[in-house]
Design goal:
- By secondary structure, the chain is of the alpha/beta class.
- The protein has helices spanning about 10-25, 60-70, 85-90, 90-110, 145-165, 185-200, 220-230, 250-260, 290-295, 300-320, 320-325; strands at about 5, 25-30, 50-55, 75, 115-125, 170-175, 175-180, 205-210, 215, 220, 240, 245-250, 270.
- The protein has two domains: about 5-180 and about 215-240, 3-Layer(aba) Sandwich (Rossmann fold), CATH 3.40.50; about 185-215 and about 245-280 and about 300-325, UDP-galactose 4-epimerase, domain 1, CATH 3.90.25.
- It is built from eleven helices and 13 strands.
- The longest helix has 22 residues, at about 90-110.
- Bound molecules: NADP nicotinamide-adenine-dinucleotide phosphate and ligand F7E.
- NADP nicotinamide-adenine-dinucleotide phosphate binds near residues 39 and 80.
């Protein structure tokens, strides 16, 4: 049975990757950081089938010990401070976790077992102020947030350890991918959840920032499949995963409100609080290399993604217990 160690298992991608790897017959070790309350909501359904272990990307020794004890064949480094606005308010922490955390894990692999295959969760945020349209693996980076800068570091340190120590280290440059398991602070889930709250009569407005920004949005389960595919190749390389389509925040909002038969203009309030110090205006990826070399394809269209997310939040709010505790996030 192959063994995979996944950091960030409590996050959106970690939970879907764990589902996927269990389906492939893997022994899954999920790394969680210590917290005063457990946050296993996304992995509750598989808790009995995976091993949950404590570790933190801020703590080098914890990573070395985990690798020594569990001896994984593959490490998926999905842990990060991943919310762009928080990276502006906590830039040093973001650098420690999202950038230096990658070095800590790579160095742990170099010390414990150089045969471990390594996946780094890189991001389209590295393209920032885009230097070409669409973006490919060859497009130069111009990050626009401390998060984007940290991810550029994570990408290059992965390439550097591959070249310096001959590690099977891969950087997957993934464009925005969403699902009903997405954190409530990210735009697509904030909209899906906000629309469902309005439908349920729990609120009447949805406060948002820049509606003009454009993103290449896909469905998260498709993207975790691509991560695994990258580690099954004969040689380590970097790949970009995207749908190849771009849509504005405004389009996302309109389709979500249309889906429940409401006029978005009567409910959306523009709040400058949600503007960012520097914005990424336009992202659209060219996934040709992943299609050709990995055989990867996305399976869910933009419109279907919006609708499935709204439907999931509507269903969630229909459960009465949840209805009263449903959080109204203001980040
Ligand atoms: P997410 O939901 O925010 O999950 C982040 C995970 O990292 C959580 O499990 C979190 O644990 C963990 N974490 C944070 N700090 C940590 C630390 N110091 N030590 C150990 N674990 C820590 O993110 P996601 O959407 O699943 O994304 C997964 C990865 O892909 C991230 O690296 C993200 O930057 C990258 N990425 C995401 C996208 C996307 O569209 N989703 C696109 C490109 C790249 P807690 O639960 O304890 O907070
Ligand atoms: O914002 C605009 C906002 O927070 C998308 C992370 O997973 O994907 C994600 O980063 C757009 C931005 O994601 C609100 O200004 C308008 O232009 O959903 P988001 P992101 O910043 O693109 C990349 C690939 C990652 O790697 C990251 O980890 O939506 N926007 N109004 C808003 N965004 C938020 N969050 N909230 C608003 O009210």
């Amino acid at each position: 049975m192959p063994k995979a160690l996944v950091t960030g298992i409590t996050g959106q991608d970690g939970s879907y990757l764990a589902d996927f790897l269990l389906g492939k017959g893997y022994d899954v070790i999920g790394v969680v950081r210590r917290s005063s309350t457990v946050n296993f909501d996304r992995i509750e359904h598989i808790q009995e089938r995976i091993q949950i272990v404590q570790g933190d990307l801020l703590d080098q020794v914890s990573l070395i010990h985990l690798l020594e004890e569990h001896r994984p064949d593959e490490v998926y480094n999905l842990a990060a401070q991943s919310f762009v606005p928080t990276s502006f308010s906590q830039p040093a922490l973001t650098g420690e976790v999202t950038a230096l955390g990658v070095t800590r894990m790579l160095d742990a692999i170099r010390i414990v077992d150089k045969n471990i295959r390594f996946y780094q969760a890189s991001s389209s945020e590295m393209f920032g102020k885009v230097q070409e349209v669409p973006q490919s693996e060859k497009t130069p980076f111009w990050p626009r947030s401390p998060y984007g800068v940290a991810k550029v570091y994570g990408h290059w340190i992965t390439v550097n350890y591959r070249e310096s120590y001959d590690l099977f280290a891969v950087s997957g440059i993934l464009f925005n991918h969403e699902s009903p398991r997405r954190g409530l602070e990210f735009l697509p889930r904030k909209v899906a959840h906000g629309v469902a709250r309005i439908r349920a009569g729990l609120s009447s407005e949805l406060r948002l920032g820049n509606l003009e920004a454009r993103r290449d949005w896909g469905y998260a389960p498709d993207y975790v499949r691509g991560m695994w595919m990258m580690l099954q190749q004969d040689h380590p390389d970097d790949y970009l995963l995207a749908t190849g389509e771009t849509h504005s925040v405004g389009e996302f909002v309109r389709i979500a409100f249309d889906h429940i038969g409401l006029d978005w203009e009567k409910h959306v309030v523009i709040d400058p609080k949600y503007y960012r110090p520097a914005e990424v205006d336009l992202l659209v990826g060219n996934p040709a290399k992943a299609r050709k070399q990995l055989g990867w394809e996305h399976s869910v269209s933009f419109e279907d993604l919006v609708r499935l997310m709204v439907d999931a939040d509507l269903a969630m709010l229909e459960e009465t217990e949840t209805k009263h505790t449903s959080p109204n996030i203001n980040w």
